[in-house]
């Protein structure tokens, strides 16, 4: 079926193939002529959706969640052809691209803050050599100075190789899962609500933790040890710890396997991930929408309106890098505050094997001992360095992910 319509700015030819498969592709191409008129061609095939952005003076509309096109001036007669690709979320191509984008974002952010992460773990786990520095804003720098004196630059990045091995699949699964859960819970922009965004983020975080937790435990052990420890040697030591075959009476229902040594603190991690990932994705999305709707200068200049996808939604305008970093930073601070006490308990459980390899201590018992030893303040030890680390970590992670989405045509 073909439809030809004529407008004051030019003519539009739309050719629709009789294919209603949700994975079908809508290809829109806008070509500008020398007199300022636009010819728009829309074709439908299989695989993905392409739309051409046609108005660089577009403004984001709060009421409809779409881009409302402004009038074009005579100086804007000449246009560049630009293709934006909107892919089917359920396709393997989309999943692979989002996983790669998320993985790159994760390792970039983690490597940037690796020294802060090393010091934070030493504080959280109450390492006797560094506990004297905990609780002050300058303590992180003094601890980093001591590490540099004894172990050099390598000491500041100790455990980062394990971090990279863990964070790539972790971030890849997390961002991919978020896109999938978001597509299930919010198929169109009109379905988006704050609660659904929080749930999608929480589910994505729990999914990623389930698959990558052993790598996180190994990373924490490497960072906790003040002496350089070979990676495989540490893995063997953790696997052979007697606690894996022991269960206290209240945990008798948990199977006793040596592999469980790699899941110390797993339940606590899952519980903590719900507020952390949920608040992170929720706050980031809310801040992005706030910038688009209320702070025009945060948008990149000369962005085109394009054509809507099959749901009638236009592409969201991209934010400037400084705005993306600000949105991610705020998301990091909020999520860190919401989940920090559970993170401290988890770290305590993860390093418990290094202190007493024969005993497996549960989450509530670990929290009780921490409260008796240090009171409520003990659950917030290292929070200042947590802000210093997580704020840039989440900011860089979200910013790199958004840029990777654009580069891989999945924005």
Automatic annotation (TrEMBL):
Residue spans of biased composition, Low complexity class: 1-16, 29-47
Taxonomy, superkingdom: Eukaryota
Membrane-topology descriptor: Multi-pass membrane protein
Natural source organism: Linnemannia gamsii
Annotated localization: Mitochondrion membrane
Chain positions covered by the region annotation Disordered: 1-80
Pfam families: Mito_carr
Residue stretches of biased makeup (Polar residues): 17-28
Protein name: Mitochondrial carrier protein
